[in-house]
Amino acid sequence: MPRSARPPRKLDFLWFLMAALLPLPWIVAFNFQGLGLLPEISATLSGLAIVGAAFLLSWTTELAERDVPQALALLVLALASVLPEYAVDLHFAWKAGVDPSYAPYAAANMTGANRLLIGLGWPSVALLACWRTRKDYLTIDSKQRLEMRFLLVATIYSFFIPVGSHITLLDAAILLAIFSSYVIGAMRSESHEVELVGPAALIDQAFGDLGRRIWALVLFSFSAFVIYISAEPFADGLVHVGRNHGIDEFLLVQWLAPVASESPEFVIALLFALKRRGSVGLGALLSSKVNQWTLLVGAIPIAYCISSSSWHGLPLDARQTEELWLTSAQSLLALVLVADLRMGRRDGILLAVLFLGQLCFPSTRVRQIFIGIYLVAALALLLRRGATGGRAFTQLLRMS
Asked: The domain 10-395: what is its CATH number?
């Protein structure tokens, strides 16, 4: 197995130390629950614990790719990559089965995480890669067509989910089938050489094969434990903070929770872009988007139905319906932009500006306007690129 070529740096150790220390205050507080912490403190400590655990988990999954058989690795690593987001979202879905007032928060967290990946993650990687390579666009590896294809299928289907005002078990079955097909397709694709960066490379170089496997197991167990004890207090703490201070708790859940869980993926993708390997970084975010838009969304109604002992699925009100359509429209535009396996500076700026625009003005009218802007922009780009753009886009649907 190839090892990381870059020598370990002190900064890698500091990153690792910081991530390992972040969960400790909350672990102490969790074991002394009689302290009666305020919701603000509870949410802060548990949120920082999730951030630290998410970083450790991301490095763990990198290490595991060296040893886990490919078929198993694709499943385990895909699940692990969304574990922090998964824990928070499924907590809201489960609680909504008992208290319907929590139903909007499950959709809020899910749509926020998905829009954050495309609206902030993709542009950041593309613009940083363009700056590092002094080019006007980032060239995407043709192997990423696999992720684009299944993301396109999931995106097309997602437009129909809100029609029935529920995310149903049928939706779950279809989305999980799309995810399973993606995993099968990935298993059949060519394997690639794993290049470790940051603390994962430090551990790989310092401890050898046996030590790497032990570290991966320990870090995964520790991260999973931290996420398990932190997800519920963090999620509930955000809701209480919003209610206590007159802040829209929907927005807190939609944006603050995903920032905590998505930060490690962003950092790793940006590190690849800094190393002039922007295609690898964008590919990681593409894979994460597929996982969240299929596996995560599909799991929400399952958790809700089990908790509520019903078959109706998670209910969607008017706002959640708009949020889902807005997320679908953003995903469609992003796919049109990268269908030709390029993401230019203007593409990144366009996605970032549209994301920040709808983020700064969270009203019904603004959401509806931005849904239209995303869809019109996607159609205009297809027409502008003519036959070439149409062929690039439709090629994503080919399963061969």
From this structure: 1.20.1420.30
